[in-house]
Input
Amino acid sequence: MYLPPLPRWRSTLLFAHRWLGIVLGLLLLLWAASGAILLYYGMPHFTAGERLARLEPLDLATARVEPAAALAQVDGVPRRLRVSMHDSRPVYRVNSGEGFGIWSMVYADTGELLRSLDQDDVIFAMVKLYPEYDETMGYERHLFAPDQFTHLPALQGHFPLHRLNMGNGDEYYVSERSGEIVMRTTYLSRVLGFFGYNLHTLGFWRQQAWWGPLLRGAGWLGVGLAVLGLLASIRHAPQAAAPVAGRRLPWSEEFWLHWHHRTGLLFGVVLLIWLLSGLVALGALPGLRGLPPSAAQLAAGARTAEGQGAALDFSPLTLDALREAVDKIGAEFPVKELELQMVNGEPYYLAYRPPIPEEQANWASQSVLDALAPMLAWEHRYISATNVVARPFAAFGEADLLAMATAAMPGLLPGDTEWLTEPDAYYQPTLDSLAAALPVPVQRLPVLKLTYQDDERTWLYLEPSHAQLLKVDQGDRRQRWFLNGLHGLDLPLLRNYRPLWDSVVLLLLLGCLGLCLTAAQPAWRRLKGIHQRLLDLLGGQS
Output
């Protein structure tokens, strides 16, 4: 690329780079620093392990209302159903609507739709679940809008929330709509969540309409800043290499500009790659995201990015079959909750084994939304929701999976079919640093992989333990490399060799942090000079 060596061109480039840096410098500094926290911690969350352990055992002795009759009161298209207990009463918890949906609760003994829980109701129910905090538990706030730890989109369908302090710094958020605990924070998790996820995403403004445009605009300006900086560094490399006495004095502007130039040559491209790949996560680069699942794929068992599946049909469900499911699975482990799942058009109940205290203490979360996720990498049993003589089982067979694939890709036959016993580049657990505020699929092995020659070159991964259908098309594969690969360095040569991956990412983050810090002193001097000139100008006019 030819760059005319004109003084005006050089001064214009440096002027634009300097002022973009002054405007964006603090934000870039925060992105680099908070990224180091995001390597290991995302947001405070209520773990699925604690949720399962604290739920009351499911007892349907007092249930009198059939599922279809109870859930007819709920507005919207039902997409998830959980059967559990609330305050020693059996309840249906249903999610309906689009996106993350809205949660509602219907009592299975009376058919009453829960309208709201007041402060006394919440405290009474929480004392039952956490009797050890009876003397210290206190009510804090009734939240009608998100605070800085409940702004995730998946939580909005539970609002309003009640926030309680347990007396030891732990805070729990209870939904007024569903009666469920949806968030838990501690002193440490609040600090890490604020300085990590919230600062990195400016998440405390997430519910504002301008949040997305602000991040995308800042990202594109950052790309411009990085490009201008790289051009300036390359263009001025000979001058920067020339000896200047002031560069040896840490308090001099020449010293900081010299090292800013050097760190820019080393880490400017890294900063540019991270900014561009971050824009992929915001949907700012077209063609680098996969298509949403089709209606056929949803009906076959796929789920949207929000974790929603196809609409549920409650008409064949009966209380007798529910009680049979609890009794039969209960012979293997205590049943705390049943969730309805459709597989090949047939309804099944899914139950997870509650963890013992030692397991709960070491519970490994898949994402910050585990407590709300329908599928967990944990011991579980399925049972037919309509066949009262059915037996519990732990996984679906290959015939069931192939039937799901046929329904998901009607009229198409797979080109290749293979069972994977090792992860490939597109089916593998997500690295901690890549965990977004979205449900994470269960990615267990073995998994059945089918490839198709349709327009999108679709691949299907069918996981037998949860009858999970994961669709990966051309856009999904591009997103995997441009977002996970470039933004999180989720690369085969690194991800399998930790702590090598940690060392490389931390080194690059430190380099980008140094790139921002070395520009701070010259930027501050520039702003002070402008401020002084304005004061002199105003003083002269007076």
The longest helix spans residues 7-38. The chain has a mean pLDDT of 89. The two ends are 51 Å apart (CA to CA).
